[in-house]
Amino acid sequence: MSKVFVIIAITFCSIYGYAQERDSIAPIRDNIGDLNASYIKNGQFPGAIMLPGTEVSLAIGGFIKAVGFYDTKYNEKNEIILPGNFAPSQFEDGQTYFGARSSRLFFDGRSSLGNIKMRGYFEMDFRGSSGFTLRHAYLKLSNQHGQQLLMGQYWSLIMDLQTVAEGLVEPTMSGGGFSRHGQIRFTTPLSKSLTFSASLEEPNNSDLKGVDIITVNKYPDVIGSMSFDPSSAFHLSLTGMYKPATFKTQSNTDLKTEAGWLTGLGMLVRPSAHDKITLGLIYGKGASNYIMGADGTSGYYDQNTMELQDESGFNCSYKHNWNEKFRSNIALGRFFGNEIKNNPNPHIKSSTFGFINTYYQLNRYVNIGIEWVYSEKENYRGSNFNNNRFQFGIQVF
Fold it and tell me: 17-31, 123-137, 292-306: lowest mean pLDDT where?
């Protein structure tokens, strides 16, 4: 087994030798929903140890995030709010909640094999029904040309992580790609400012609904992305996905496939050292499992035809650093889905997620924040929902 791994690593090191070497800064831990991300990225949390008798460095870390909130109508005790999944049973008279389930724990192991740098990463939070949720678990190989090979569970390549707004818990913005998938991904720089990535991702066709339908996850989803980064003040990405949505029925076991797809554009602009503006656009068909703000129904089969939903959306944000202690964010995201005419059940027409927040940085280990979140869902053939959430939180480490 070890010989096979060595052969794979050597092959990875030798291919695409023409790619130009460039500097890159990767966050030590997942920076989505991390209020101390800038300090972690700058390496101000040393702590890795060399395991005795090995060449492996291991770091164990994470943070504690305590959150309290009041919802005006939503009555589901979840620190994550997902307007695409709003249902009548979740809307009573609102709620008050206090907890720390968004806290995280990670293990980060690193070593080298010749010119290959190896990283194994495992991260979880505590929001799952079983007590915790696996966020990320992957192995990543990197060579001296800046190329990377990643295999495991990580954010989907359909996401542009640089354009995700800074939310108090986790910015589940409608109208944007937002998903974690099992995958194998290859990334290579084409020049000092241009990077290409491609991934095969684990399919999940549970968003196909209908009469006597059996979903089949036979073929992987294929995603490609180009990222243009001429400077720290500007970023642009273009992403495309092909999703072979496969299914069969109990009456006819022949495999059927419909072509789902999704395209995305992401942009980041820093007009000054204190300001950041982001914009994301998506458009596709039958890709609900990849889109935040969708309701998990991307297509409906009525015993004759599978009709996939046309889906689109946008999200944008503005961040301003008032001084060394205070910073604020304002963000808005909208998702739109066309009517699936052969679906007699309620399904989503649109959803909205927007927030305004302010953070006070007590020191480099402690952030305190307050946030207002507005969320809304409009259905075809069903009820409409809206909610206001007022929340505060503190993150340590």
Answer: 17-31
**Which residues lie closer than 8 Å to 131 by C-beta, 6 or more apart?**
none
Contact criterion met (CB below 8 Å) for 328 and 360 = no
Per DSSP, the three-state class of 289 is helix
Strands (E), 160-206: 176-177, 180-189, 194-201
Q: Give the SS3 label for residue 233.
A: coil
- Domain holding 42: CATH number? 2.40.160.10
129, with CB counted inside 10 A (0-12, 13-18, 19+), is exposed
Query: pLDDT tens-digit profile of 98-124?
Result: 999 999 999 999 989 889 999 999 999
Give the whole-angstrom CA distance, residue 267 versus residue 246. 33
Tokens of residue 284, six digits: 């596709």
The amino acid that residue 56 corresponds to is V
Question: What is the total count of domains within the chain?
Answer: 1
Q: Rg of the chain over CA atoms, in angstroms?
A: 22
Predicted pLDDT of residue 31: 77
Calculate the CA dihedral of residues 331, 395, 31, 49 and round it to 10 degrees. 170
Domain coverage including residue 329:
2-396
Residue that has been written with the tokens 């101390």 in this structure: 36
- How many of the other CB atoms lie within 10 Å of CB of 9? 18
Q: Which residues contact 2 (CB under 8 A, 6 or more apart)?
A: none
CA distance 127 to 319: 27
The residue-averaged pLDDT of 217-230 equals: 97
Question: Three-class SS of residue 202?
Answer: coil
For residue 39, give the DSSP letter: H
Three-state DSSP at 244 gives strand
Q: How far is CA 368 from the centre of its chain?
A: 23
User: Measured on CA atoms in the order 317, 390, 65, 36, is the torsion positive or negative?
Assistant: positive
Strand partners, 105: 62, 124
Of 100, 170, 109, nearest in space to 132 by CA: 100
The torsion angle over the Cα atoms of residues 213, 156, 241 and 25, rounded to 10 degrees, is: 180
